[in-house]
Design goal:
InterPro entries: MULE_transposase_dom, Znf_FLYWCH. By secondary structure, the chain is α+β, with helices and mostly antiparallel strands. The protein has three domains: about 55 residues, no CATH class; about 55 residues, no CATH class; about 120 residues, 2-Layer Sandwich (Nucleotidyltransferase, domain 5). Helices cover about 25% and strands about 30% of the residues. The chain is built from six helices and 13 strands. A seven-stranded mixed β-sheet has the order 7-8-11-10-9-12-13, covered by helices on one side. Strands 1-2-3-4-5-6 form a six-stranded antiparallel β-sheet, covered by helices on one side. A hairpin with a 2-residue loop joins strand 2 and strand 3. Helix 1 packs antiparallel against helix 2, helix 1 packs across helix 3 and helix 2 crosses helix 3. The longest helix has 17 residues. It is elongated, with a radius of gyration of 25 Å.
Length: about 260
């Protein structure tokens, strides 16, 4: 018997690769899983153990030949999706790393590079809260083991570390900015707080906010201020009225400066 290859479909359903044929799950019982050929014009069937580790009987005859190159292509898609879910690597880094071990004789079965990169990005967008309405554990810590979630409820999530807050406390010049294009669907914007540290502007705090009202910004800044003795000399924001009102109210002795943003 040949080697069994296990896959998942775009919807997370079980798939099987065996002797050059691709099968999708048709139904399952307590004692076996029944797969049918991915080609819907073909009546080929394959029965496996519930764990999909053993073929219980040789597949029924197909009306077409095998496609040996398609199985490595499906394996690659599953690898990049799994790696995207488990790591913070750039999409291009994941793809190039996995492609190094891909057989050249199957290259014709691969989707375009842009399509594979979109697959990685979609996988990351699919990551959401768990059953307790909390972020999964692997998103709650940095690679150095520091806690990365300062505040979390249904109105606001703040990401930062103790180290970042210590740096922010030492910074005399802050820069705040919001972006809407990369924000998860349950929130309205990602609001980022940067600090000028050793002649470099670095991002130190990230907030997911449900809106852009003065109250939203007040909650963000007030939660940050609970973590230390912050005394910036200046805070630079765009000219959004709600942001300016919040900064002037909570930091009355701090110089506020505005700047104009241009969306591409």
């Amino acid at each position: 018997m040949g080697t069994i290859k296990k896959f998942s479909s775009e919807k997370g359903k079980s798939m099987l690769g065996y002797e050059g044929y691709i099968y999708t799950l048709e139904r399952k019982t307590d004692v076996k899983m029944i797969f049918r050929c991915q080609n819907r014009d073909c009546k080929g069937r394959c029965h496996t153990s519930p764990s999909m580790d053993t073929v219980l009987s040789e597949p029924t005859e197909h009306c077409h030949g095998p496609n040996l190159g398609k199985i490595p292509a499906l394996e690659l898609k599953n690898k990049i999706k799994s790696r995207a879910a488990d790591s913070e690597e750039q999409s291009s880094t994941i793809l190039h790393s996995v492609l190094r071990s891909f057989p050249l004789d199957s290259a014709g079965q691969l989707p375009k590079t842009d399509t594979l990169l979109r697959t990685i990005r979609r996988q990351r967008q699919a990551i959401s809260v768990n059953a307790d309405n909390r972020l999964p554990d692997h998103l709650r810590q940095t690679d150095r083991g520091e806690n990365f979630v300062l505040h979390e409820n249904n109105k606001m999530i703040i990401f930062t570390t103790t180290s970042n807050l210590s740096i922010l406390e030492a910074c005399k010049h802050w820069f705040a900015d919001g972006t809407f294009k990369v924000c998860p669907k349950d929130f309205y914007q990602m609001f980022t707080l940067h600090g000028l540290f050793k002649s470099q502007v670095i991002p130190l705090v990230y907030g997911l906010l449900i809106g852009k009202s003065t109250s939203d910004y007040d909650q963000f800044f007030e939660r940050i201020m609970e973590e230390g003795n912050f005394n910036p000399d200046s805070i630079l924001t765009d000219f959004e009225a709600a942001t300016i009102k919040s900064v002037k109210s909570l930091f009355p002795n701090v110089l506020h400066k505005g700047y104009i943003t241009f969306d591409p």
